[in-house]
Amino acid sequence: MVFLDPPADEELTRRAQSGETAALGLLLARHQAPMRAVALSLLGHGPDAEDAVQDAVVTALRRIGDVRDPAAVGPWLRAIVRNASRMRLRDGRETPGLDGLDRPGPRAGEPSDPERVVDRHAQRDWIWDAMAELPQRLRLVLMLRHFSGITSYQEIADACGIPVGTVRSRLSQARGKLAEVLLRTAAEAHDDASRVVEDSRQEAELTLDGAARGRQHREILELWPAETELVGVLSTPEERCHPFPAMERARSKGVVQRLRHVVASPDVTIWEMTAVNPAGIPDPCPADLAWLMIRRPDRRVRSLRVVFPGRPA
């Protein structure tokens, strides 16, 4: 019997950089023990160390193309864990997102190219397929934290209507489950996640165009059925509200919303907007806002919550 030597790190890294998810899964599994050792040496035993490793796993799959020396991928992986661990040790700082040192989505007035960040490597579809296996409550906080501009624990808490402690707990659970699913599904085929995003982008553009005209397109009326509920700060307490009257109020004030970024899964959608107010109007709309939508299985919107990052709920 002939035993084949396992592929070297250099070979696995090059294959991973070419988009082979199975190679990246094997590479991460091989180095998980030394990565965990780095986290334990800096953070000790506990959930912070596990979170740092889980962050590093997802960061690695998003940034594997940045490795210049494939033979030295082990030290590169350990450096990612070290950076994630040190961020947790800094007072007043929150843990980094899935891209480690990468910035989250920009705010109003900043240059925006979110597709370049999300689609940087072929592993994008792998990530989104894995996220689809998470419960909706975990997927929602993960999408906000790591793929939108609503990144702080307080902003996520306000957007979801839950305590900050619950946000931390759900993010920890989500990262752990996501890392597990990613390693388990590395060799599987994955759907094209960009299709969902592009469909949602077209829906957003049509919705905003209809809102600006004061009359929605037929296909958008189907997206927002009569039972769609507006919740959160723009809704009326103890009264069921549809989103269209709120859109009309914004239009009557002359407020124009422009789409900046789309984050989408089959049942959770986030449209990040920039609001432009006419000069001198009373109670202007904050420049940064996001539409957070929960969808039904038929993709129609069940509920809409408009959130304003950086402002109390």
Mind explaining what this structure looks like?
- This protein is α+β, with helices and mostly antiparallel strands and 313 residues long.
- The protein folds into two domains: 176 residues, no CATH class; 115 residues, Nuclear Transport Factor 2, Chain: A (Roll), CATH 3.10.450.50.
- 50% of the residues lie in helices and 12% in strands.
- The chain contains twelve helices and five strands.
- The chain has a five-stranded mixed beta sheet with strand order 1-5-4-3-2, sandwiched between helices.
- A hairpin with a 5-residue loop joins β4 and β5.
- α2 packs antiparallel against α3 and α8 crosses α9.
- The longest helix is centred in the N-terminal third of the chain and has 23 residues.
- The chain is elongated, with a radius of gyration of 21 Å.
- 37% of the residues are buried.
- About 10% of the residues have low confidence.
